[in-house]
Design goal:
The chain is built from 8 helices and 12 strands. With 224 residues, the protein is α/β, with parallel strands linked by helices. It has 2 domains: 117 residues, Rossmann fold, CATH 3.40.50.2300; 94 residues, Winged helix-like DNA-binding domain superfamily/Winged helix DNA-binding domain (Arc Repressor Mutant, subunit A, Orthogonal Bundle), CATH 1.10.10.10. The protein starts with a strand and ends with a strand.
Length: 224
């Protein structure tokens, strides 16, 4: 999953970025509302989740949220706010936010809120994804093929999750890179190929039914 944080306290933004990256998320951050809105408007397909501070310079989190929803961008948004009052909470939800979190907050609660929101839309993010005899659970990060549990690294899990959310679609390396790695990471092709090779060895090596395919000249596909 790729997350954008829009938070003007750079120390907090950087701490959240580092913490989320330890759990396998790709994370970028911006420091003002106008920059955040511009990035999301132009590249909303690059992000699966947005953490948006309420009090931002140049444009508030509520204004950004309303603007994004008004043009049909439905990416899940979690509002961060230092104000623990009903009015601000209602305003955040009415502006189109999916949830809010009051500062100061625990990192564990932030993770739990992200997981809960990300699971909500039933048409896209179900509790479990099943293709053939492979079952992937986004909440527990557990993968099974038949009765066997498959142990994956964080990046292997995120790659498999993304491919299984887009069955029968050929996903090119650039699309995988954009969704799963930081923009500052320049090691595009080789690192993806290595992760795909390791993933294929774990899910397909001892099975007659191979589901992870290489699409020549394009990238990779999970066959359904």
């Amino acid at each position: 999953m790729r997350i954008l944080i829009v938070e003007d306290e750079e120390d907090l933004a950087n701490a959240l970025k580092k913490g989320l990256e330890k759990f396998g998320y790709a994370v970028d951050y911006l420091l003002d509302g106008e920059a955040g809105e511009r990035r999301i408007t132009l590249r909303h397909n690059d992000y699966d989740f947005i953490v948006l501070d309420l009090m931002l310079p140049r444009k508030s989190g509520l204004e950004v949220c309303r603007s994004l929803r008004s043009i049909g961008i439905t990416t899940p948004i979690l509002i961060l706010t230092g104000r623990d009052n009903i009015h601000d909470k209602v305003s955040a939800l009415d502006s189109g936010a999916d949830d809010y979190l009051v500062k100061p907050f625990s990192f564990e609660e932030l993770l739990a809120r992200i997981r809960a929101i990300y699971r909500r839309p039933p048409e896209a993010f179900v509790d479990e994804i099943r293709i053939y005899d492979i079952v992937l659970n986004p909440a527990t990060r557990e993968v099974r093929r038949g009765e066997e549990k498959i142990n994956l690294t964080l990046k292997e899990f995120e790659i498999l999750h993304y491919l299984m959310r887009n069955p029968n679609k050929a996903i090119d390396r650039e699309e995988l890179f954009v969704h799963l790695w930081d923009f500052a990471d320049n090691s595009l092709s080789n690192v993806i190929d290595v992760h795909i090779k390791n993933l294929r060895n774990k899910i397909d090596k001892d099975n007659d039914e191979k589901i992870l395919e290489t699409v020549r000249g394009v990238g990779y596909r999970i066959r359904k």
